[in-house]
Write a structure and sequence with these properties.
The chain has 331 residues and is of the alpha/beta class. Helices cover 39% and strands 18% of the residues. The chain contains ten helices and twelve strands. The structure holds nicotinamide-adenine-dinucleotide (NAD). The site of nicotinamide-adenine-dinucleotide has 27 residues, from helix 1, helix 4, strand 5 and strand 7.
Amino acid sequence: MGAVLVAGGAGYIGSHAVKALRRTGRDVVVYDNLSAGHLAAVRGAEFVLGDIADTARLRQVIRRHGVTSVMHFAAWLAVGESVRDPAGYYRNNVIGTLALLEAVVAEAVPAFVLSSTCAVYGEPERTPIAEDHPTHPINAYGETKLAIEHALPHYERAYGLRAIRLRYFNAAGADPEGDLGEDHDPEIHLIPRAIAAARGGPPLRVFGTDYPTPDGTCLRDYIHVTDLADAHLAALRALEGGGASQAYNLGNGRPHSVLEVVAAVERVAGRPVPTSVSPRREGDPAVLYASTERITRDLGWRPGLSDLDAIVGTAWQWHERHPAGYGERQS
Ligand SMILES: NC(=O)c1ccc[n+]([C@@H]2O[C@H](COP(=O)([O-])OP(=O)(O)OC[C@H]3O[C@@H](n4cnc5c(N)ncnc54)[C@H](O)[C@@H]3O)[C@@H](O)[C@H]2O)c1
């Protein structure tokens, strides 16, 4: 088996996947433009600074390192920003990914794992959401991911590329060994923002307390980043063993409200999380959680770290040890 190219491997989820791959002894090449990632998050793998839009460079890297599979994490992922700057999101997430795919098929790489998202579903018609739920994204971010999901079966028919699309719900937590964690700038995710509030940062804004849920706040599905990394290994094993292309949800299947997350952070931190209440955000469904029956049935994957306090605990530990995140900012 050749090397795995991890596009976006200097980012939050990609870096955890790289660690999991290295643990299984795979050779890994991280390819990242560091627009949002951190060099310090790349451990034990080759690093190439580059943009996924650069097909020629990608072809060189694939050849030089004997790459036989690709995991693709490199994308922008802020929903609100995608609404304000759809052109940038289509350029980076769609045009960029098509350029990466061009290199992949030109070099006859046969296996591709895509980071997709529950944002492809849009407003849920029913929960838990299974993979056959209609896909009607309600923002440009979700549309860019769905555009690539729609392209992949055509690439398979024409060029033989098999692909697994992993639709993550809310990625959360940090490497339990403390090596890696979440360091987005700006941070848009609930758990690190709640942790920042507990550590003396600005109060956590709770968007909407009048949803039709038990405590009035939104319910979401938090999946530990190490479980996501393990699912990538399972997907790669399946593809490399000749398995079929497929889309799989990745969640922990148990929804938690914003206030439950706040309470979990308070328990883990032993400190209060100051909050302020803001109106609902447009396009925030009341309830989003996954059915993961398909990936359990097909690939034998199930979440290992599904307890909310355990998820929050790993994140808290990382932020305690790394108050400035990775401590370097790319401009
Ligand atoms: N974080 C979540 O909760 C979540 C949920 C669903 C899906 N996803 C998807 O998972 C993937 C990874 O998310 P993350 O939280 O690790 O994000 P991240 O921003 O931490 O990581 C993305 C990485 O890709 C790199 N990158 C972006 N554009 C690039 C380009 N044009 N060329 C080369 N490198 C580029 C960035 O520098 C960064 O290192 C994304 O595709 C995202 O859409 C994330």
